[in-house]
């Protein structure tokens, strides 16, 4: 059988062309098309009704849910307003109660013990002032004992007045240091305490490391 579209040979039993895929046997135009039966129309009508019913149910449920939420919100707002009113009235009642108590209170009378307490407080204040004056005088004395030195060599600052004590830092030659107090050490050494509490060797049997200004 030849293809009416491309003239290629095909088998007698084939319905479409191997080469171009065109139909080899045209459809019979006289063949009637299949029509829908009454049962088909009934099924279609039932399905449409079911769809409409489902849509209506969804709309009703959503609207009722929204209305329920609105009612709940309104109830919550009303409850909060009532609680705020109750709290405000309680505050007013409590304030009035305490104000009334203050009015009813009588001025306290000064007892003899209160006078003694005042005297004790005054004496304590005087003693505190004396201690402060003493501390200030001691500070002045310490400041008068302080001396300024200049390093003759590169020096080592230690945490105790001893050659084997821990090293804190180093000083270059010609740096100035303030010595608060002095203390004797080993090998005929004299150590000076700095303002920060650390120590530096002033001199020993071999050399003089610091010169007083």
Q: Would you spell out the secondary-structure blueprint of this structure?
A:
Layout (H helix, E strand, L loop, with lengths): L37 H67 L7 H34 L1 E5 L3 E4 L8 E5 L4 E9 L5 E5 L4 E5 L6 E3 L1
Antiparallel strand pairs: 1-4, 1-7, 2-3, 4-5, 5-6
Describe this structure in words.
The chain is α+β, with helices and mostly antiparallel strands and 213 residues long. The chain has a domain at 142-212: SH3 Domains (SH3 type barrels), CATH 2.30.30.40. 47% of the residues lie in helices and 17% in strands. The protein contains two helices and seven strands; from the N terminus they run ααβββββββ. Strands 6-5-4-1-7 form a five-stranded antiparallel sheet, covered by helices on one side. β2 and β3 form a beta hairpin. The longest helix is centred in the middle third of the chain and has 67 residues, at 38-104. The relative contact order is 0.06. The mean pLDDT is 81.
Task: Supply database-style keywords.
2 helices, 213 residues, elongated, SH3 type barrels, 7 strands, alpha+beta, five-stranded antiparallel beta sheet, two-stranded antiparallel ribbon
CATH class of the domain at 142-212: Mainly Beta
How many strand segments? 7
- SS field, number of helical segments: 2
Distance between the termini: 132 Å
The CATH superfamily name of the domain at 142-212 is SH3 Domains
Instruction: Supply Rg.
Output: 56 Å
CATH topology label of the domain at 142-212: SH3 type barrels
Q: Which bin fits the share of residues in helices? A: 40-55%
What is the succession of H and E elements? HHEEEEEEE
């Amino acid at each position: 059988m030849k293809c009416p579209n491309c003239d290629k040979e095909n088998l007698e039993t084939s319905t479409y062309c191997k080469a171009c895929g065109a139909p080899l046997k045209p459809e019979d135009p006289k063949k009637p098309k299949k029509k829908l039966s009454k049962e088909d129309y009934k099924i279609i009508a039932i399905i449409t009704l079911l769809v409409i019913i489902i849509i209506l149910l969804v709309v009703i449920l959503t609207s009722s849910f929204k209305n329920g939420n609105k009612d709940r919100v309104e109830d919550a707002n009303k409850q909060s307003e009532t609680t705020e009113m109750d709290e405000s009235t309680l505050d007013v009642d409590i304030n009035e109660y305490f104000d009334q108590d203050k009015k009813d209170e009588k001025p306290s009378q000064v007892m003899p013990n209160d006078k003694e307490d005042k005297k004790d407080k005054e004496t304590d204040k005087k003693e505190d002032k004396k201690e402060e004056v003493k501390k200030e005088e001691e500070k002045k004395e310490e400041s008068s004992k302080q001396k300024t030195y200049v390093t003759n060599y590169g020096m080592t600052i230690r945490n105790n007045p001893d050659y084997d004590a821990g090293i804190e830092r180093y000083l270059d030659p010609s740096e100035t240091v303030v010595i608060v107090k002095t203390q004797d050490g080993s090998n005929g050494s004299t150590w000076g305490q700095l303002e920060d509490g650390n120590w530096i060797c002033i001199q020993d049997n071999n050399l003089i490391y610091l010169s007083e200004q």
